[in-house]
Write a structure and sequence with these properties.
Layout lengths: L3 H4 L2 E3 L1 H9 L3 E7 L4 H13 L3 E5 L2 H7 L8 E5 L2
Parallel strand pairs: 2-3
Antiparallel strand pairs: 1-4, 2-4
Length: 81
């Protein structure tokens, strides 16, 4: 599931993820289950409004690790090629 982050182009973080979704540049979004409610709502709404598939990840720590960063992150977007 998170293997696409190792081979594809992606952005990390809520702001960048929502920005790419709204710009129609994201093909898939990962959202951590333990993200703050207002962050989760923002990402979920953007994905729903722009018909982007949303996949939930167990934790922000897991998502950060999958993105190759040493920080936790609430969201990441896999970009269109």
């Amino acid at each position: 599931m998170l293997d696409d982050l190792k081979t594809g182009k992606f952005v990390v973080g809520t702001r960048q993820t929502v920005k790419m979704v709204k710009a129609n540049e994201a093909r898939l979004v990962y959202l951590a289950k333990d993200a703050d409610a207002h962050i989760a709502d923002e990402v979920e709404n953007a994905c729903n409004n722009h018909n982007v598939k949303l996949i939930y990840v167990d934790s922000m720590d897991d998502l950060g690790h999958a993105c190759g960063i040493e920080r936790m992150t609430a969201a990441a977007a896999l970009l269109k090629e």
